[in-house]
Amino acid sequence: YDELGGSEYYRIVHNRLGANVPVVRWDQERGMVYGVIDSINDGLVVAAHDISNGGMLVTLAEMLIGGNIDGKYGAEVDISLAGSDLRRDKVLFSESSGYLLEVPQQNASQFERLMESYGVIPRYIGDVVSNPRLVAYDGGQLVNLHLDDMKTVWATGLKDALR
Fold first, then answer.
1. Fewer Cβ atoms within 10 Å of its own Cβ: the N or the C terminal residue of the chain?
2. What is the mean pLDDT of the chain?
3. Mind listing the pLDDT tens digit for each residue in 84-98?
4. Dmax of the chain from CA atoms?
5. How far apart are CA 40 and CA 111, in angstroms?
6. Phi-psi region of 152 (alpha: psi -120 to 50; beta: other; left: phi over 0)
7. Segments of the chain with pLDDT less than 70
8. How many CA atoms does the CB half-sphere of 104 hold within 13 Å?
9. Is 82 helix (H, G, I), strand (E, B) or coil?
10. Cα gap 103→110, rounded to integer Å
11. Which stretches of 3-139 are assigned E, i.e. beta strand?
């Protein structure tokens, strides 16, 4: 959704607050939460992260540089597969509620059926890859970042900001 009001993206890139803050859609939220919990409990999901501050792109970056993965793998995503008619920046940085899940191919059909039983239509947007980069496409390449560079910026951000 076009919900970037109060987002870091608007603050940093556009130097403004923005107008459209995320709205809680209770029925949709309930379906997502129960579907994600059941998917994890059923062993269908390898990794999961909620989309919140920073939107989908930041969530994906956090998944790649944190936890057990620790920069060993990368991701290639095609945001046109997200099924949105929003501008690219809004698809990447909208803070609307949602989840990014890593589901192995062999679990995809069962995962989709489970999520659909809760009224949630999951979207495949890309793959985990062995190359430690975050790459996003939408017709052309939008982002291509090495995970070592992302980790350095993340780890030194506060120190650099305080200088």
1. C
2. 89
3. 888 888 889 888 889
4. 51
5. 10
6. alpha
7. 67, 69-70
8. 8
9. helix
10. 10
11. 47-51, 74-78, 98-102, 126-129, 133-138
pLDDT at position 89 is 87
Structure tokens at 38: 């059941």
Provide long-range contacts, Cβ within 8 A and 24+ apart, for 63-71. Answer: 63/100, 63/102, 64/132, 64/134, 64/147, 64/150, 65/147, 65/150, 65/151, 65/154, 71/132, 71/147, 71/148, 71/151
**Degrees to nearest 5, angle at CA 70 with 112 and 106:** 25
pTM of the model: 0.86
**E runs forming strands in the chain:** 47-51, 74-78, 98-102, 126-129, 133-138, 140-146
- What is the β-pairing status of strands 47-51 and 98-102? antiparallel
Angle, helices 147-162 vs 55-65, to 10°: value is 100
- Name residue 108's amino acid: A
